[in-house]
Amino acid sequence: MNLAGEKKKIVSTTELSVSSIPVSKTVPSIVYTAIQQVGPSQFTGICSDDTGNTCVAHKKVQKKYPWILNMADPCHHLNDLTKDICNLPHFKGIIKDVHHTMKFFKKSTIANSHLKKAHRVHMILCGLVSIGKTHFWSIYHATASVKWCLPAIRDICGSHLIKIPDVNSNFSVTEPLAKSITCLESSHATAVDVYVFWLAIMASMNNTLQSNDVAENIRHLCNYRFNQSIHDGPSDIFITSFFLDPCLCLIT
């Protein structure tokens, strides 16, 4: 993510070793070294996942270089929100079915071969996408791939009665999160985009969710992660840049 139009990519490699020095002291030292190599004046902000050690490093860096903005990691929070939603009992059944479907076709060469042939018959251009261990938003891509491949899966199973329950509900709820993470991971994403995508996510959830206990749980999780990222973040960079963007002033 960049805060201005002009960007420069710099790669810094650091070797970590086990020692008696606490990690909370090691991380800031590593960051200081990288900043000095590039030049402190070249930095406008610092961002990483919100673990305890990195948060300490952020605060120490900002104390030493006051002009460097301390920012929350929007993709990290959106990834955690996806995990929270998918851990709800309502979605565990569908995720289990998707996982078993992936596992079956991954381990069976014959089944995978028949699936590819059925893809050509049904003119399906994408295949099944696996679920990542820590990239929880990949659950959306996996669910979407099963949905797109379902005609081919039905075909090779010789039955049109196969049904994966609630696939559409999981698809529609996790879709805005997965797409937002993909966009915000771009090198062209700005601080303004973080707040814009959060507004889009909340609006999408409001339009998608129905009035039931599951919907209320999802709303609670969305509000919690929104406040954690925007209202309770280490700085107000996202909402401030949103209101100061001249292009957004034209929106009525």
TrEMBL record:
Higher taxonomy: Eukaryota, Fungi, Dikarya, Basidiomycota, Agaricomycotina
Organism listed in the record: Pleurotus eryngii
Domain of life assignment: Eukaryota
Protein's UniProt name: DUF659 domain-containing protein
